[in-house]
C-alpha cells in the first residue's frame, strides 16, 4: 500500500488507495492503532470450506489415481460443513503457518485467535500448534497475543513448547459462562438450581455469585 513519506502529510497519498477492500481494512487497523486499540483477527485452521469440485483446493497437487489420492491437503473427515486439513502433510502445516505470518505482515495486527484448535488436535494436528506459535513469536511480533479455543479446556495449550505444550498465550475458558448460567438458574429456581444443559457444572460457583449479589442488594 502506497503512503506519503513526508512528515506531517496524510497517512495515505490519495483516496484512490482506499478504494480496495484490503486497503480499507489496513486503514481501519491503522486508525485503531492511532487511538490505542489493538486488533486481533479470528482464523480458522481446523477445516476448509467450499464445494470441493475441480476448481477447489482439493486438487492443489493432482495425481493420477483417485480423488483422495489426488490431494493430501485435506482429511477425508468433515467438520463444520467442510473438510479437516491434513496436518500430517508438512506442506499443509507450512501453508497454515505462512498464512498466519501473512496476516501479521500485511495487516500489522496485534494477535490471532485460533478457532477450535481442539479439532486440529483430534485429527492429528497437535504438533502443528507449537510449530505455529513458536514461528509467529520468533519471526513476527513477539508481543502479539496468540489465543486458542480448545474444548474441553486443556492446560497444555498455554504451556511452553519446551514443556510439551502448544505455546499459546491464552485460551478460552467456560468457567465464567458456567458460573453466570448457574447464577441465573439459581436466582430463577432457588439456590440449589443448576442449568440443565451444563450438567451442574459451575453450580457451586454460581451459588456463591448469587449469594454475593443477594447480600449486596440487602
Distance between the termini: 60 Å
List low-confidence stretches.
1-10
| DSSP helix fraction | 25-40%
> CATH architecture of the largest domain, please?
Alpha-Beta Barrel
Overall structural domain count: 3
CATH superfamily of the largest domain: Glycosidases
Radius of gyration (Å): 23 Å
How many separate helices? 7
Q: Looking at the structure, what is the overall shape?
A: globular
Provide the spatial order of strands within the biggest beta sheet.
1-4-5-6
Kindly provide the name of the CATH class of the largest domain: Alpha Beta
Q: Name the structural class.
A: alpha/beta
Tell me the strand percentage band. Answer: 5-15%
CATH topology of the largest domain: TIM Barrel
List the helices and strands in order: HEHEEHEHHEEHH
For the residues shown, what is the average pLDDT?
80
State the major sheet: 4 strands, parallel
The number of strands is 6
